Amino acid sequence: MKNLLLVTCSILALGAVAPAFGADLAAQPVYKAPPPPPPQVAAAIYDWSGLYIGINGGWGFSDATGGTVGGQIGYRQQMGQAVFGIEGQGNWADFSGSNVSTTFPLNTNRSTTDAFGLITGLIGYTSNNVLLYAKGGAAVMSNAYQVTSTLTGAQVASIDNTRLGAAVGAGVEVGFAPNWSVGIEYNHLFMPDANVSFATAAGGPPRGPDNGGQPAVVATDRIRQDFDLLTLRLNYKFSPPVLKY
Q1: 3-state SS track over the chain
Q2: Which family is annotated (predicted)?
Q3: What is the C-alpha to C-alpha distance for residues 199 and 157, in angstroms, rounded to an integer?
Q4: pLDDT at 216
Q5: More confident residue, 167 or 195
Q6: Is the pLDDT score of 14 beyond 50?
Q7: Which one of 66, 104, 183, 245 has the fewest beta carbons within 10 angstroms of its own beta carbon?
């Protein structure tokens, strides 16, 4: 009986303590581990550094106007958001035009350009895959000039030559794929005027008392050759964009 009484008292005591112990456990704060950080994703930062080649086509306009198509090759180096480079460009052209000479109103000057080339340096500013730039350097052109009489239609002089000048320009280029970019560019070519000499049909005083006719005299006309150039460009760069975190 003593043992039964002791067991009964122990059970009652445990029953009284258990709710209080459970309440203490429920009152304890629950701490959860923070969620793991999301995986780091690489953002594509377009890098303009590298060797590139491309094609271009467009329109030239001045005294001589027409279409042109050609190619370019160059190298660019990006430093931060600044881009520096050098480029060579060669184009076939079909520029032609004519105007009445201001020096000899009875003559018409005609000029044609069948090719030109540019060697330019470049400096630009980039925002990821968009590049704004300015350029400048040397220009060379293959030209032909003719002087024609407006009265008879006869050609009184002609000359073919290659002329050296300067070029300045600006453009914008957008990278639309890892190695490809497309852009539009404007250039102004400063070319020296062409001096075309020819013999006039008549003019000047008689050479002497024994020569009552009008001798032929040599005249020189100047043909302006500056022109503006607007082209669309497509480039392929051999270096892919750099992925940065």
Answers
A1: CHHHHHHHHHHHHHHHHHHHHHHHHHHCCCCCCCCCCCCCCCEEECCCCEEEEEEEEEEEEECCEEEEEEEEEEEEEEECCEEEEEEEEEEEEEEEEEEECCCCCCEEEEEEEEEEEEEEEEEEEEECCEEEEEEEEEEEEEEEEEEEECCCCCEEEEEEEEEEEEEEEEEEEEEEECCEEEEEEEEEEECCCEEEEEECCCCCCCCECCECCCCCCEEEEEECCCEEEEEEEEEEECCCCEEEC
A2: Belongs to the Omp25/RopB family.
A3: 8
A4: 55
A5: 167
A6: no
A7: 245
Residue with tokens 């006719």: 213
Closest by CA position to 120, among listed 168, 76, 184 = 168
Looking up tokens 């760069």, which residue turns up?
A: 237
Confidence at residue 78, expressed as pLDDT on a 0 to 100 scale: 95
CATH of region 50-203+216-237, choose from 3.40.50.2300, 3.90.1860.10, 2.40.40.20, 2.40.160.20: 2.40.160.20
